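pinned: reference chain
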Amino acid sequence: MAWMLITSGWILDLLSIIWIMLILLDILFSWITTAAKTPGPARYWLTKVAALPVDILRRTLPTVYREMDFAPWLAILLLILMKTFIFRGMIYWGMLHQPVG
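pinned: its C-alpha cells
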C-alpha cells in the first residue's frame, strides 16, 4: 500500500508539472502568434490538452474581468497548490507507512 501511494504521488506530481508547462506554453503561444488564422496540428493538440483544467474553471467560476480571462492563471495556481499539498502529501504519507527493515 505504501509503495502505491509513493508511486501515484510521484506520477501525479510529474503530471501536474507537465500540465502547468502545457498551460504556460499555450499562454505564450497565444501572445506570440495572434495573427495565425489556422493553427498547426501541434498547436491544436496543445490547446486541447492545456484547456481541460482551464475549461473546468471557466464552467464553475466567473473568470473574466474587464476582458481579461484569469482562468489559465487560476488553473496554474490550483495545480501548484495540489502539487504542493496533496501529491507531495501522498508521497510523505506513503514514506511514513513503509515497513521497517
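why pinned: Helices lie at 2-32, 41-60, 71-96. The radius of gyration is 17 Å.
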